[in-house]
TrEMBL record:
Keywords: Metal-binding, Zinc, Zinc-finger. InterPro entries: HAD-like_sf (IPR036412), Znf_SWIM (IPR007527). This is Protocadherin Fat 4. Residues 224-262 form the SWIM-type domain. One of its GO terms (molecular function) is zinc ion binding. PANTHER family: PHD-TYPE DOMAIN-CONTAINING PROTEIN, SWIM-TYPE DOMAIN-CONTAINING PROTEIN.
Length: 328
């Protein structure tokens, strides 16, 4: 996943044959807003009408939606009145639609990753938290900070989070379903909120269609149904709702099946999805802990330690220049 750089796209596709390069949603949106705001493009006055049309195309979840929303754009006044808009979108963005329109993204993506901001956040952390004051440092000095400070601290934080989310560190609430224990907090919080929403479904709202497929009545549109497939082997689970399309995590419709069809729970989801490393804690980190489970009934462990055996925190290299702190 990259920003819209034809050089980067070409280099990646040449080096990694058969790979598919996608455009980051965040940077696509940023590029659109910046283009519309430039006075020379003649649409700064109409960006409130143009941008929603563009965003609706990006969010299209079916080929039919994509075609309809593209027609809506081409019928709009801002499109017909401005040749620069037509040239910009038709020549730059439309030919690359398969890189940024959601419907063209492979359904076998095991998790919903739509931006490359995680990588950029790491870059910002390195620059502003670890290289502050080293404005003119050499490459070797930067690498020294990277190897002796940034990477060990990042790895230690990774181990710490794995430990804190595990049942060895803190006893889980008794109401937490077993399948959500020992998982990253973001996954557990997401599914728990959907389980709460699913409590409003009744048993007759869920209809089994066989082979792991179900129809669940829509709460917002009672006359329609959402189609669910638990998947198998290499086939991804699927729900036709927007929540699943956005997060790729069990939605309230999946949770309604979990609640009312007990033989179809989390463990029935396709194994290549269910066992995704991003949905589980890293057992290698937990194996390096010396935490003990609390059997006293209290929710917090008072005596807990963890020792990352493969990383030693080192003091900064003596060859580094003294940091120059900004006066602010």
């Amino acid at each position: 996943m990259v920003d819209f750089s034809e050089v980067e796209i070409g280099a990646l596709e040449e080096e990694f044959q058969g790979s598919k390069v996608l455009l980051c949603d965040f940077h696509r949106e940023k590029a659109w807003v910046e283009w519309c705001r430039k006075k020379g493009h003649g649409v700064s006055y109409a960006q409130d009408s143009l941008l929603p049309l563009l965003r609706s195309i990006a969010a299209a979840s079916t080929p039919e939606e994509f075609s309809t929303r593209l027609c809506n754009l081409q019928e709009a006044k801002v499109w017909k009145d401005n040749e620069k808009v037509r040239a910009w979108f038709s020549n730059k963005w439309l030919p690359e639609a398969k890189r940024w329109v959601h419907v063209f993204r492979d359904e076998d993506l095991k998790v919903a990753i739509y931006t490359n901001n995680g990588v950029e956040r790491q870059n910002e952390t390195l620059k502003h938290s670890h290289l502050e004051g080293y404005k003119n440092c050499s490459l070797s000095e930067m690498l020294t900070v990277l190897v002796t400070d940034f990477l060990p601290r990042t790895y230690r934080k990774y181990i710490e989070l794995n430990v804190k989310y595990s049942s060895f560190y803190r006893r889980y609430n008794e109401n937490m379903p077993k399948f959500l224990k020992d998982r990253p907090r973001s996954v557990a919080d997401h599914v728990m909120s959907r389980l709460t929403e699913a409590q409003f479904y009744e048993a007759n709202d869920v209809v089994a269609k066989g082979n792991g497929m179900f129809h669940v009545k829509s709460q917002s549109h009672p006359c329609t149904q959402n189609h669910i497939n638990f998947g198998e082997s290499i086939i991804m689970p699927l729900c036709t709702c927007k929540d699943w399309a956005k997060h790729k995590l069990p939605c309230k419709h999946f949770c309604a099946v979990f609640n009312h069809v007990h033989e179809w729970g989390w463990e029935k989801l396709a194994s290549n999805y269910r066992d995704n490393p991003l949905f589980s804690l890293d057992n290698a980190c937990l194996g390096q802990t010396s935490c003990e489970r609390d059997d006293s009934g209290s929710s917090d462990i008072t005596d807990h330690t963890y020792t990352p055996v493969s990383v030693e925190m080192q003091s900064p290299c003596n060859a580094l220049p003294e940091r120059k702190r900004p006066r602010k």
